[in-house]
Design a protein that fits this description.
With about 100 residues, the chain is of the alpha+beta class. About 45% of the residues lie in helices and about 25% in strands. It has 5 helices and 4 strands, in the order H-H-H-H-E-E-E-H-E.
Length: about 100
């Protein structure tokens, strides 16, 4: 997945969408320093992860259809949480890349 190779770019896209400052696909690709094709890959992967992204033709920018929060990274899980999640398996970290509503 492209997002996992460069999560900072996905964060840039998210920020620009929140600000309603993406512009057209070509403009957004230029703003984040990628080709349009790679931009579409990022957008499709974000949608697959649950991001309610759509393109507003009147505003000429990408938007979220509802309020979401993009989180990407590692966090430590306490043992009590692990017991609930994994039945006590030894797992200290997990990756989150969810769009939380």
């Amino acid at each position: 997945m492209t997002i996992f190779k460069n999560p900072e770019r996905a964060k840039q896209i998210d920020q620009l969408i929140r600000l309603k400052a993406t512009g057209t696909p070509k403009e957004l690709a230029e703003k984040i320093g990628v080709s349009e094709r790679l931009l579409y890959d990022y957008l499709n992967e974000m949608k697959e992860l649950g991001a309610p992204i759509y393109y507003d033709k009147e505003r000429c920018c990408y938007c979220y259809s509802e309020e979401v929060k993009f989180e990407f990274g590692f966090r430590i899980i306490e043992q009590a949480q692990l017991d609930k999640i994994k039945g006590g398996e030894m797992q200290l970290f997990f990756l989150t890349a969810d769009f939380l509503q």
